[in-house]
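Late entry, magnesium ion complex.
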Amino acid sequence: MNNPGTELAATERTLSRKDYQTDNDVRWCPGCGDYAILAQFHKMLAAIGARKEEHVIVSGIGCSSRFPYYVDCYGLHGIHGRAPAIATGLKVANPDLTVWVVTGDGDGLSIGASHLLHALRRNVDIKVLLFNNRIYGLTKGQFSPTSPRGLPTRSSPAGNTDDPVRPLDFAVTAGASFVARAIDTDTTRLQDIFIAAASHRGSVFVEILQNCPIFLDGVFDALRDERGRVDLVDGEPMEFAGKVLGRNERGRLESFDTGHHRALIHDVTDRDTARQLAAIDDSSGLPFPFGILYREERAAQHEAVAGKGRLDIPGMQRRLSASSRVRRQTP
Amino acid sequence: MAIAEEIPRRDETGVSVVVRFCGDSGDGVQLAGNRFTFDAVRAGNDVATFPEFPAEIRAPAGSTAGVSAFQVQFGDHRVYTHGDEADVLVAMNPAALTTNLAHLKAGGILIADTGAFGRKALAQAGYRDNPLDDFDPHRARLVGVDMTAMVLEALGGFDMKRREALKSRNFFALGVVYWMFGRGEDEMLQWIGKKFARSDTVRQANTAAFKTGMAWAETTELMAFERPVADTVAAGERTITGNEALSLGLMAAAALADLELVVGCYPITPASDILHYLSNERDNGVVAIQAEDEIAAIGMALGASYGGAIGVTATSGPGMALKSETLGLAVSLELPLVVVDVQRAGPSTGMPTRAEQADANIALAGRSGEAPVPVVAARSPADCFHAAIAAARIAVEHMTPVVLLSDAALANSAEPWSTPELADIAPIRVPRARAPAGGAKWLPYARDARLVRSWAVPGTPGLQHRIGGLEKLDGTGEISYDGANHERMTDLRERKVAVIGERLDDAIEVYGELSGRLLMVSWGGTYGAVRQAVCDARQLGHAVSHLHLRWLNPMDDSIGDIARGFDRVLVAELNRGQVLERLRARFLVDARGLSMMAGRPFGRRELHNAIVKALNS
Ligand SMILES: Cc1ncc(C[n+]2csc(CCOP(=O)(O)OP(=O)(O)O)c2C)c(N)n1
Ligand code: SF4
Ligand SMILES: [Mg+2]
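Prediction complete; structure with ligand written out below:
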């Protein structure tokens, strides 16, 4: 908790990243990817000159969902999976706020998948940051809906029998109007995406690959290598490790040598390509795309449902009288 | 706590009549019933209605599954129920007759469309012979009239198909009934003119059918009803159903608090109409969202409250079960929230259109952990307006979720309604947080004398804070796993709800003396039937009083003392004794229960018999 007196004064000057930290001890395990994400979030707030009172972080339950306690803005640590619904109500009631949702792969794609789907499709103006560590962290290591098939965990000793969900594919298909991916260690890209997300009007979905050194250490190591990833830049070819992503004659994505005529130029407004990029998974044999996959402008939900002309007491009295217009006969 | 020791007024008994319309769902009996009721109120009667819809949306025409009925009791005195049995039954086809004849009292009047009793229709209703032939005159006086033929003849000059023309039969029936009860023709014709302004043919057809019905009644010298109902009560300007009154009450509460109203709902019978009504009020500042499920609906409502609005969600039993976890979060966050449960018969899907009061337990205790929530129950359709304001007032002024209980009968039944004067209702005070003077720290869980924390709405500079469902340290709201603190917070949350009782002047209502032979106890929608039965018993000279509970939590301390003033205490509820058990446990009184699980409200006679039995035991 900050001292409101000093804080008001503080908003007059430019705030630094440290000003957005809270006094709470951060309780993630040493080496957890969440630290890096938090640091970039603080930095983003400073970079955009955020007024603390205008930002709210709503979260569910999980290691990742502790996030609001560590950022000095408004915050609500809710219940498992329901943050998108709570954030929706908050945004329609208070449209001037910038509303962030922090969720995990279990929180957002298992128990709360339905709420996430509907918030994205309604284009609720909330910015969903899904920390994907491909495991249940807080409950100590059960498989999650993004865990690799075959993964032995405490609840799948013989190996996970389920196929994983592809979070970006889910988001594009659901109808998110901003879809991006970053990884905890890639601080620059994380920063860029956060800044772009902050100013987007509509439903933002950012998958942040986050290492859990305790229960699934190194699961993203292959993606830290330049051969495992392609960094998307709008208007540029999708180059990686001397190769480029293109579309083969069957319309599928394939890697080609740089300069090949089938190479694709990244266009963030192209939903069909975004869908194909979002579908790349462990079994595709293609590099994982990072950066902003898709972005579109369309009316946000709170604009569509906003009430007009709230009634004061005399107004409500008139409303009541109107519904009783037919008067009793005077005998 | 004020106890209203109301002494029965004389106008509790007088003349009243029960009319029941029944027919196929396509026959327009709901419209006929509503119209007849409306003009009864306009003429100055008190009324209580009870619509019964077919269980299936599109049952085959003429089948018993497709029968729709509407019952109204109107009188020259206070009318509390729709009546046990009908004095007049209007049956539009054989299926309606076979399913509704039991509702007609012995010696009553049966008006039937003889033209609708053809061979096929009789067979569909399971009749081998036409029941109207040799109708037993001791059972009822049959007024048979070939509405079908007369309507077709009257509309012969119109460019209409037979099927279309027959849709005006309900207006013929209304014409007959209007004549019987001496209701004026002008209002009806005016109304038809307005209601069907868009179609000349339909307007003229309904007008002609209505006039033909009236003329037929007059020329056949059909008796005017022998017990005329004086037009003396002036009970209201119009009628209103529980769901409409509840919706208006929520809007009025928002105006009284000067807050936005945000409603999150997932459709469910019999609560959906609240979503429908409020969806129509966008131009009056209401935000109504149809959520993806009941969990999202309450989540949105809670999020809206966090954002500084009055968050409301309305549902019925199955949805109530889904909202439990979020309701617990609201208890922990200490934010305002109104959860409306329009109870229906359960468990599970149960009987969606039928009334029951079996959600008292889930409302009072259906959460994990110790999670006290104030619970208020509406007692009549028009009272839903005031109950909604009461729920929102306590939610906002005490920063707590509140459950508002209604039921399927209140939701769809109507009673007279006069425009309430909002100036007579106290504004709702909003406990807004302010940055403390002198640079002191604002604490999210600091409390005032009534243990209410203050509401710091996101967007307010300087009051940034974090809240959540983890246990918090008393005062600061920081996360705390300290056992002693948890004990203290549990105690605070409990006392915070308990102290609300000190300010409720409507927690209970006593009718009759504070001691006697029998105390009848009701809560919620059983109010009317119990009051009527108590009036009846008192007319017969029995020392019976009526205690009605408006708030199930907090429960008023005086209840035990009052109950101990009576030889017997009988708690009437449409469940297996949920509130009864609480009263016994809390006040250690030997109360007994009167339970009914028939999917409908208590009847006057059932209660009367129970009272007599209790007095004789
Ligand atoms: C209703 C409910 N069910 C189960 C839990 C237990 N639970 C807490 S967090 C969690 C999974 C979290 O996994 P994830 O969302 O991936 O977050 P992480 O801890 O990995 O960041 C579970 C099952 C709960 N808190 N509430
Ligand atoms: S369990 Fe894993 S995800 Fe959770 S805090 Fe520890 S390292 Fe991070
Ligand atoms: Mg996880």
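The domain at 6-224+299-329 of chain A is CATH 3.40.50.970 (Rossmann fold). Will revisit in the morning.
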